[in-house]
Amino acid sequence: MSERVTDYVTPIVEIAASLFARKGYHGTSMRDIGREVGVHAGSLYVHIQSKEDLLEAIVHSIMERSERDMEEILAAGGTATEQLRQVAARDLKLIGENKEFATVFFHEWRQLSEPRQQAVIASRDRWETGLRSIITQGIEAGEFREADPRIAGIALTSILNWAYVWYSPDGSLTTDELADRFAELLIEGLRAH
């Protein structure tokens, strides 16, 4: 199950994520990061090579966790309905528990250099392939009606990916409850009658 990505990153990366989420990648200087860390900006280069490396570490932490979640869901098997519920639950939990990292991921990944962007795109494509395979499995098993797996996948992904904007842990629903409701909306739209 998803855990906080900050369990696996350095305090410098965590501080950079907070600043990038509030001020944007280009709006945050190395001096800003250094001040928050409590060192001179030049001293940061003992620990990192560039500001882009910090951005890549933030983006990669979300990508890696999301892709690992999908791999675990696919490996566990089960019905397509059960797997879609797991996708929604894990994705919302990942975003809800790592809101600053998710904000940076969704807003700033295109600030990475071309080769680093390609790694993000490849990871996204693998995740989306997993999601489409679940939907296809559901169609083939008769759980879901005939539908375009790509469009159905885009619908669920679009719902989930905006959670970083509106989700609040102080809200009336937990991430699991929200995930269940979102999955139910999609599943009802796909269900074979």
Automatic annotation (TrEMBL):
One Pfam family per UniProt: TetR_N
Start and end residues of each HTH tetR-type domain: 6-66
SUPFAM superfamilies: Homeodomain-like (SSF46689), Tetracyclin repressor-like, C-terminal domain (SSF48498)
DNA-binding region: 29-48
Alphabetized UniProt keyword annotations: DNA-binding, Repressor, Transcription, Transcription regulation
Domain of life: Bacteria
Descriptive protein name: TetR/AcrR family transcriptional regulator
Taxonomic classification: Bacteria, Bacillati, Actinomycetota, Actinomycetes, Pseudonocardiales
